[in-house]
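User: structure tokens for N-acetyltransferase domain-containing protein, please.
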Amino acid sequence: MVKNIDWSVPKGELAYFIDAEQEGKGFTSNAVELVKNYAFEDLKIEKLYIKIDPRNLGSKRVAINNGFEKEGYFKHEYRTGYGDVTDVERYGLVNNRSRR
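Assistant: Done. Predicted tokens:
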């Protein structure tokens, strides 16, 4: 899903979750590709970003395989659903087609 859209840029956060039993099957990468294309082509968003727990190697692979690049590391940034506060790595992707 795309959330936290800032129409003044325009940019939005791409967020996803997958059940542990379905990890490693390519479902998340395929879904990210579809949502990315929808956001860029239909919503006319110029930049997407993903916030990832640094320990989540699978999520980093999904981001990188979809063209996202690491932009930064933020300490004590996000409260998980379990109540823990964790660091976050942010990955971003600019729609170069919109910059023509």
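User: Anything notable?

Assistant: The chain has two helices and five strands.
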